[in-house]
Amino acid sequence: MAVIPAAGTLPWRRRRGRLEVAMVHRPKYDDWSWAKGKTDPGEAAPVTAARETLEETGLQVHLGRPLPAASYTVLDREGQPATKEVHYWAAEVVGGSGALENEIDEVRWLDVVAAHDRLDYARDRDQLRALVRADAEGALTTWPVVLVRHAKSRPRDGWGEDDRGRPLDARGEAQARALVPLLASYGVTRVVTSSSRRCVDTVAPYAASVGRDLKLRDGLSEEGYAADPSRSEHHLHRTLERGRPTAMCSHGPVLPALLGGLRDLVDLTTVGGREADRVLAEAGAEAMGKGEALVCHLVSTGRQARVVAVERHPARG
Q1: Which of 312, 288, 308 is nearest to 299 (CA)?
Q2: Any idea which GO molecular function terms this record carries (predicted)?
Q3: Which domains does the chain have, with CATH numbers?
Q4: How far is CA 307 from CA 59, 142, 145, 197, 237, in A?
Q5: Whether 65 contacts 89, CB under 8 Å
Q6: Tally of CA atoms within 13 A in the half-sphere of 104 that contains its CB
Q7: Chain centre distance of CA 167
Q8: Backbone dihedral region for residue 17 (phi beyond 0: left; psi -120 to 50: alpha; all else: beta)
Q9: What angle do CA 169, 161, 203 make, to 5 degrees?
Q10: Closest CA to 267 of 226, 308, 303
Q11: What is this structure's pTM?
Q12: What pairing do the DSSP bridges indicate for beta strands 190-194 and 293-299?
């Protein structure tokens, strides 16, 4: 059976001390559900989730922690059965006009009890329950640290110059461009990178798109890490102290140390904690792919920071 990928969000807010979520009404089906839509060819699911939320609700969101996915049978355009797989994220509204499109005639903010009763599909309650549980655990308000392995670069063989100046190849440049909407969906505002050109060129398109300066760090380069491995840990700790949505771009030999440092912060008592630990361990053991982004969702900052969810997104482009 064919699979139709889709993605959406549960925008949430706190009003007069009560947790509320935004739901949409589709007049075509006369149903209440979450903002969602089909993934465009080559599009990463988080990009779909943020885009579809804006298109359906007029609300611009930044994604938070992932929520349970939904899978159910629908009919495709040819009238044949297909499996629709929808990935969801908790999300916070950061802007937008609130103007509705034709498919949606109403967006309503409801407290979680009223939302539970209003939903037309039992499968949509899985995401709501996960969001409520995360809130009860103090793990709903999160901020991201995104580890990025530099995109595909020209091979070392035949370069003949200082390796730190080795640039991306054409495929790597496409991977760098594909990172722009992905990092934007999480609201990244700070970009820290190895001083090596292949890392700089990987995240420079995103930094330019949001008008941010790159923070170049020799300690995240292969050469700097080889000279003093503690420097990469220092840069991670500084990021945790700042508590700002951050992308950190580095190299294959350096990333296991950063992944290990983040794994030490995993809160195994929260929903998603054990899965986060597994994903970080797997990424450290098998090596992240070139152009891959690993998103860690954290609560609190500094020494109190803890990881409550992790996602991996392979390179695109």
Answers
A1: 308
A2: bis(5'-nucleosyl)-tetraphosphatase (asymmetrical) activity
A3: 2-136 (3.90.79.10), 143-313 (3.40.50.1240)
A4: 27, 9, 10, 30, 13
A5: yes
A6: 25
A7: 26
A8: left
A9: 40
A10: 308
A11: 0.96
A12: unpaired
Average pLDDT, the chain: 96
Question: Which residue has tokens 């380069």?
Answer: 221
The residues near 13 (Cβ < 8 Å, ≥ 6 apart) are 19, 20, 22, 92, 93, 109
For the chain, the C-alpha Rg in angstroms (whole number) is 20
Question: For residue 204, which amino acid is it?
Answer: A
Q: How many Å apart are CA 92 and CA 11, to the nearest integer?
A: 5
Q: Residues 241-289: pLDDT tens digits?
A: 999 999 999 999 999 999 999 999 999 999 899 999 999 999 999 999 9
Which one-letter DSSP state was computed for residue 195?
S
Tokens of 92: 């916070």
Please identify which residue in the block is written with the tokens 């990244």: 188
Lookup result for tokens 């949606």 = 104
pLDDT digits (tens, 9 = 90+) for 69-120: 999 888 777 778 889 999 999 999 999 988 887 689 999 999 999 999 999 9
183: tokens are 């990092």
Residue type, position 68, single letter: P
